[in-house]
């Protein structure tokens, strides 16, 4: 974090990344003194409502974050910044997105949790766009021109006012991670899923212990669960109730419950009732501390691809075990009409023997398995699995004798990443192929 005093004193000369928070109401003009070096500007968490007309003087600026401010319009001056590729204005009061505000080289746009009712048709004229986050707005439709976004890989349109599923979405050749829950067109399916039976666990039966972790949608605590005369160690996830980048935490809770029991999913013991503040929550089995995340989330540079530790390696047996476990879990979800929406290595936990658990249902969406869009939606997620296979194969240490098996794994990867969605296998078939590969 940097301060205005440092900036004015010239102590930040030459910095490439500047982060300033703390009640700014106007854009500090001293930032222009950094024009020869500044590439990333983070002014989130202030009280800004406008940007200066001469912002393009920051000619090297690639990334700008202005989340949690007071903007009512996405500043048109952004589109004039010559090097700008990433724009993040989450949690403002934005109602209007002028066509001029969209940089020509736009790659990543975050407008989550605003008041946007309509997007400009020109959004479909940004061919480099890979990541588009629009959850928690008031959109009633998407511009038809978005069907031309052939590089778009991640799309978040959950918690809007869309009355129809955009039929052209599954035809986007690179779309891989999609979240659309919380819209009127899928309300009926979500109500049915929310009604999935789940044990009710009273707040008075729980004694919270230390915090285990915190994500966008909630906080996870270790807890004692008193029932049937015994005490059980569990994990309790308390949902924050606010909009996340993926959508509504309530949809996440419905997906966790609706998924049911599976050896590669974290067991849900029940939903929370009678919290003193009315908070929603889930009580889950406590994960063995030997489990760790398979990867880290995408970086600003990788955009849509996970980041792995440099020394991360697997033997062939572990590689196949991880792949088979996740394929089996995904097949289970699809059978139940649930699309995970965020099938990534950073949402997979594994132990040294290859046993895996697929978690984080924050981007989950629901569909009718008998509907026309069911298979195209499933094949979007298959593409995500193809990237996972690519990452596993790249880090697999296979002996010469095991090389034929690794070659078959790569063939499956290629099938999952096929440019034609209709040519990709479904998870039932993928799971069968991987089970056979494990046994051979």
CATH topology of the largest domain: Leucine-rich repeat, LRR (right-handed beta-alpha superhelix)
List how many beta strands DSSP finds.
Answer: 21
The CATH architecture of the largest domain can be named as Alpha-Beta Horseshoe
State the share of residues found in helices, binned by percent.
Answer: 10-25%
Into which percentage range does the β-strand content fall?
15-25%
- Tally of helical runs: 7
**If you average the pLDDT, what whole number results?**
93
**Secondary-structure content class:** alpha/beta
CATH superfamily caption of the largest domain: Ribonuclease Inhibitor
Low-confidence stretches: none
Shape: globular
Structure characterization notes:
By secondary structure, this protein is an alpha/beta fold. It has seven helices and 21 strands. An eight-stranded parallel β-sheet has the order 1-2-3-4-5-6-7-8. The protein has a six-stranded mixed β-sheet with strand order 9-13-14-12-11-10, with helices on one face. Strand 11 (218-227) and strand 12 form a beta hairpin. The termini are far apart.
What labels would you give this structure?
440 residues; alpha/beta; Leucine-rich repeat, LRR (right-handed beta-alpha superhelix); Phosphorylase Kinase, domain 1; Transferase(Phosphotransferase), domain 1; 3 domains; 8-stranded parallel beta sheet; 7 helices; 21% helix; 19% strand
Summarize this entry quickly.
By secondary structure, the protein is an alpha/beta fold.
């Amino acid at each position: 974090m940097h301060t205005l005093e440092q900036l004015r004193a010239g102590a930040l000369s030459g910095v490439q990344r500047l982060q300033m928070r703390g009640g700014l109401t106007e854009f500090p003009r001293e930032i222009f003194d950094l024009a020869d070096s500044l590439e990333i500007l983070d002014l989130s968490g202030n009280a800004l409502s406008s940007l200066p007309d001469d912002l393009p003087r920051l000619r090297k600026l690639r990334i700008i974050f202005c989340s949690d401010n007071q903007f009512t319009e996405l500043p048109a001056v952004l589109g004039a910044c010559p090097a700008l590729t990433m724009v993040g204005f989450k949690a403002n009061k934005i109602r209007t997105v002028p066509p001029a505000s969209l940089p020509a080289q736009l790659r990543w746009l975050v407008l989550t949790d605003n008041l946007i009712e309509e997007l400009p048709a020109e959004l479909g004229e940004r061919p480099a766009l890979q990541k588009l986050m629009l959850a928690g707005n008031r959109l009633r439709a998407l511009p038809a021109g978005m069907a031309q976004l052939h590089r778009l890989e991640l799309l978040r349109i959950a918690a809007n006012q869309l009355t129809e599923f955009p039929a052209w979405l599954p035809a986007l050749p690179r779309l891989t991670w999609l979240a659309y829950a919380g819209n009127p067109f899928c309300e009926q399916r979500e109500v049915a899923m929310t009604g999935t039976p789940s044990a009710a666990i009273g707040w008075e039966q729980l004694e919270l212990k230390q915090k285990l972790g915190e994500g966008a949608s909630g906080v996870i605590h270790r807890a004692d669960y008193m029932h049937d005369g015994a005490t059980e160690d569990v994990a309790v996830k308390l949902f924050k109730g606010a909009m996340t980048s993926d959508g509504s935490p309530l949809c996440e809770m419905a997906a966790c419950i609706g998924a049911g029991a599976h050896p590669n999913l974290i067991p849900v013991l029940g939903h929370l009732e009678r919290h003193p503040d009315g908070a929603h929550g889930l009580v889950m089995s406590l994960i063995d501390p030997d489990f760790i995340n398979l990867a880290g989330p995408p970086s600003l540079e990788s955009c849509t691809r996970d980041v792995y530790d440099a020394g991360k390696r697997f033997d062939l047996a572990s590689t196949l075990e991880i792949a088979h476990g996740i394929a089996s879990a995904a097949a289970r979800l699809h059978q139940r009409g649930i699309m995970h929406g965020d099938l990534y290595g950073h949402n997979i936990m594994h132990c040294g023997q290859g046993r895996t658990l697929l978690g984080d249902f924050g981007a989950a969406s629901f569909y009718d398995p008998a509907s026309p869009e069911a298979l195209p939606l499933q094949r979007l997620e298959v593409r995500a699995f193809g990237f996972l296979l690519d990452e596993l194969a790249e880090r697999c240490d296979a002996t010469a004798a095991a090389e034929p098996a690794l070659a078959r794994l790569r063939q499956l990867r290629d099938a999952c990443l096929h440019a034609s969605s209709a040519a990709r296998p479904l998870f039932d078939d993928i799971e069968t192929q991987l089970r056979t590969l494990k046994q051979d």
